[in-house]
Structures are given as C-alpha cells and as structure tokens.
Amino acid sequence: MSVTLTELERKKAHAKPKTRGSGRWKLILTNYDLYLLLVPGLLVLFLFKYAPMYGIIIAFQDFNIFDGFAGSKWVGLDQFEKLVHSEEFYQVFVNTLLISVYKIVLLFPIPIIIALFLNEVRKAFFKKTIQTIIFLPHFLSWVIISGLFINILSPSGGLVNNMIQWFGGTPISFFLDNQFFRSVVVFTAGWKESGWNAIIFIAAIAGIEQEQYEAASIDGAGRIRQMLHITLPGILPTIILILILRMGYLLEAGTEQILTMYNSVVYQSGDVIGTFVYRQGLGQQDYSFSTAVGLFNSLVGFILIVAGNELSKKLIKRSIW
C-alpha cells in the first residue's frame, strides 16, 4: 500500500500542470459537433454583418458612384464637420431622443404589468387566448399597421374622429399634425410590441420557485401580496438588465415604423436619425454624408451598449458578455 502511494505521489510531482488554455481546447475537442453547428451561423453573420462594413470608408470620402471607392476623393472628417454644423441634424437628433425616451418611459413598464397579471390567471384556456391575442400584432408588418391606423385615425370617417365629433369636438389629422404625430408613433409601437416583449418577463416568472408561493399562501398572503413581494422581486434583475440594455438603443427610435407613417408635413416632429439617413442617402444621393450620420449613430449606440453592459455587471452581476 505504501509503495502504491509513493508511486502516485511521484507521478503527481512530475505531472505537467494543466493550463486554462489546454482545458479550453479539450472542451472544444470533446464537444466538436456542437461547435460545428455554429459554423453556418457565424458564416452568415460574417457575410451579411461584417463584410459590408468596409463601406463605411465612404464617410471619409466625397463618394462618386461612377468613380467607386478607389477613385473617389478623400476628404477626411469633412462629412462629420458638416454633420455637426447641420441645423437639420440637430432637429433630427432631438426628435430621435424624444421619441426614444417616450417609448422607454411609457412603454417599458407595460410588458412587465402584462406578465405579472398573466401569471395570476389560473384558467389555462383563458391565459393562452390572451397570450395569442396580444402576441399577434408583433407578426404584422409596419406597412399593415400603418394602413390600419391611418384608417382608424382618419379625419374623414375614421373611428376615433367619429367619436371626437360625437362628443362635440373637431376632427384631428393625427398623421399631419406635429402636435400629435409623436403620440401616434409611441402608441402604435406599444400596441404592436408590448405583448411580445412580455415573453421574456413571463419566462423570468416561470423560473421563480413555487415553494415561495406555497409558503406565502400558508402565511396568509393573498394574490396581490404574492405578486408584489415574490413575483416582482423575483424578476427584478431581469427588469434592470433589459432596461439597461434598452438604454443602449437610445438612438434607435423605430426607423421602419416612422418611414411608413410620416410625410414632409411632420418632419419637424417625426424625422429621426434613421429616416434622415434614408432621405439623405437614397433621396438626395448624398451617400458620404448619410454614411457619416449612420456611423455616428452606430458609434454612440455601441458606447451606450458597452456602458450599459458594464453598469449591469456592477449593479446586478449579470451581463450579455
């Protein structure tokens, strides 16, 4: 027995210490089939997300479509100076921030409330029916939704204006009035996405241990108290994480949505960075300037996401990387 122990000690002393790198390669080789499954997704990501990024060089050129990348004149940071001194961009930047902040403040709590109350529904059929109804708008395109609300809010025969007139009011042109356009944008975004966004909070609630509810019920806590003292604290880390990450998309106010809804009359209140890039790039064929605007938008968004991720690490010890 003593001989065996001595041999083991000798082998242990001469054994090569395991490094972190060797363990990682061993893990990869052991699960090589799973890593192979990643290859198609990574290829698609590279081809459609990273490969086209070389096009940002035209933000530093006076790009001419006939001369191409090689023949166009290099202008350094001139496009960015034009961006900083553009009064139109200042208005667009303010519109983007306002619409984005309205969406966060007014719409972010709605999916949480939906998830909390859906969790209290005990009839499975009723619960599934509600979920189907509130998830459905997410699958409709913005073109369909825009057409739907243009008819509902029409000043000539629209449902809402008929009700306003019935109460003695004057018809409102919601899509042609700068005073109401942002409200329409925020409301329609909430109608389309609130139910779908509730999914992540419903999943977080499903992870709460049922024993907590049973113990609270034995102690006499009602459904409202269980919701406030068990469910809500249970999903609080998820709420904070999603909120911080949402802050990273502060300059994304809903380009596709607004493009299908707005017109030149409401540029003052509805033109955002995404639509401004579209108008400048395809409308006026100023590709270099629109690329500079897009690059500025992406850079600010990247900084906000990294900052939000770091803040999430410090506050709730959770992050996306």
Structure overview:
There is one protein chain. The chain is an all-alpha fold. Helix content is 73%, strand content 1%. It has 17 helices and two strands. A two-stranded antiparallel ribbon has the order 1-2. The longest helix is centred in the C-terminal third of the chain and has 30 residues, at 287-316. It is flat. The model is unreliable at 1-5 (pLDDT under 50).
| Total strands | 2
| Low-confidence runs of at least 5 consecutive residues | 1-5
Structural class, judged by helices and strands? Answer: mainly alpha
The major beta sheet can be summarized as: 2 strands, antiparallel
Computed over alpha carbons, the radius of gyration is 27 Å
Number of helices: 17
| Average pLDDT number | 85
Q: Which percent band covers the strand fraction?
A: under 5%
Dominant shape: flat
Q: How are the strands of the largest sheet arranged?
A: 1-2
SSE arrangement, N to C: HHHEHEHHHHHHHHHHHHH
Termini Cα gap: 50 Å
Helical residues, percent: over 70%
Task: Record keyword descriptors for this entry.
17 helices, 321 residues, mainly alpha, disordered N terminus
SSE arrangement:
Elements: H1 2-14, H2 20-30, H3 32-50, E1 61-62, H4 68-71, E2 73-74, H5 78-84, H6 87-107, H7 109-120, H8 124-135, H9 142-152, H10 159-166, H11 178-206, H12 210-218, H13 223-247, H14 255-261, H15 267-270, H16 273-283, H17 287-316
Helix pairs in contact: 5-17, 6-11, 7-11, 8-11, 9-14, 11-13, 13-17, 16-17
